[in-house]
From TrEMBL:
Origin species: Nocardia ignorata
Keywords for the protein's UniProt record, in alphabetical order: Cytoplasm, Molybdenum cofactor biosynthesis
Main location: cytoplasm
Function: Required for formate dehydrogenase (FDH) activity. Acts as a sulfur carrier protein that transfers sulfur from IscS to the molybdenum cofactor prior to its insertion into FDH.
InterPro entries reported for this sequence: Cytidine_deaminase-like (IPR016193), FdhD (IPR003786)
NCBIfam families linked: fdhD_narQ (TIGR00129), PRK00724.1-2 (NF001943)
Protein name from the UniProt record: Sulfur carrier protein FdhD
Length: 283
């Protein structure tokens, strides 16, 4: 399989002093996801947890909802000139009776590590119908619990410590216990890997959970949370306007700029309550 990190030479300049040394970088390689042998998408990702990534992507796109809808996932031959397998192609076999992906999903299927599904033709195409509603999810997540999640996420990142170049996504219970953590050069891939791990463990819908991401909260990440039945999405950086609109329209609690005990609640503030039932007001 592909390596998570690679070593490359680098010229360092510190206070005018030059030195040469190897540096550890996060790997970025293409992954082609096929369904039933037919190419569906290509994404730039960090190798590792590729089956989770493929399963999570199919959940995000509404193709599957449970592990019994996936008959199998395997690597396909993608040989180099030297004859070794690149492990950069996976094929998902759907269970009998599960409909193949809608042809409208077949865009030019290039998904970059930075912007996600930028090949979508229109906003309407992105607004995938959700399988589960999160509006009635009873989860309550006090601000003091949310405030602990960024550090818990950061402390669990192993590859970031050596590269400084990875996004992370973590799935937590309402009391702050971590269920899954995944790292990737692409924030959307990290989320798909988390969701894919959960669907392969038959945990969907992910009621009464919190999805914590290391970067910003985009429309796409809010959509992925909704497709997995996650009621709370928290990010250390800013949300986009469309992410806020999507959250408000669908009952998703959306928290941004979560740093220490400071945070902005853009939607679903009723879920952030203290023991004395005083709600946190976002300004």
């Amino acid at each position: 399989m592909g390596r998570v990190t690679v070593r490359r030479p680098v010229l360092r300049i510190r206070d005018g002093v030059r030195s040469e040394r190897p540096d550890t970088l996060v790997s970025e390689e293409p992954l082609e996801v096929r369904v039933g042998g037919r190419p569906l998408t290509v994404t730039m990702r960090t190798p590792g947890n590729d089956f989770d990534l493929a399963a999570g992507f199919l959940v995000s796109e509404g193709v599957v909802r449970s592990p019994d809808q996936i008959a199998g996932i395997r690597y396909c031959a993608g040989a180099t000139a030297e004859g070794t397998n690149t492990y950069n192609i996976v094929d998902v076999v759907l269970a009998p009776g599960v409909a193949a992906p809608d042809p409208s999903l077949e865009r030019n299927f290039y998904t970059t590590s930075s912007c996600g599904l930028c090949g979508k033709a229109s906003l309407d195409a992105v607004r995938t119908a959700t399988t589960w509603s999160v509006a009635d999810d009873p989860v309550r997540c006090p601000p003091e619990v949310l405030a602990t999640l960024p550090d818990r996420l950061r402390n669990a990142q192993k590859v970031f410590d050596t590269t400084g170049g990875l996004h992370a996504a973590g799935l937590f219970t309402a009391d702050g216990s971590m269920l899954y953590l995944r790292e990737d050069v692409g924030r959307h891939n990290a989320v798909d890997k988390v969701i894919g791990a959960a669907v392969r463990a038959a945990l969907l819908p992910l009621r009464e959970t919190v999805l914590m991401v290391s970067g910003r909260a985009s429309f796409e990440l809010a959509q992925k949370a909704l497709m997995a039945g996650i009621p709370v999405l928290a990010a250390v950086s800013a949300p986009s306007s469309l992410a806020v609109d999507l959250a408000a329209d669908n009952g998703l609690t959306l928290v941004g700029f979560l740093r220490g005990d400071s945070m902005n609640v853009y939607a679903g503030a009723q879920r952030l309550v203290t023991d004395d039932r005083q709600g946190l007001l976002a300004r």
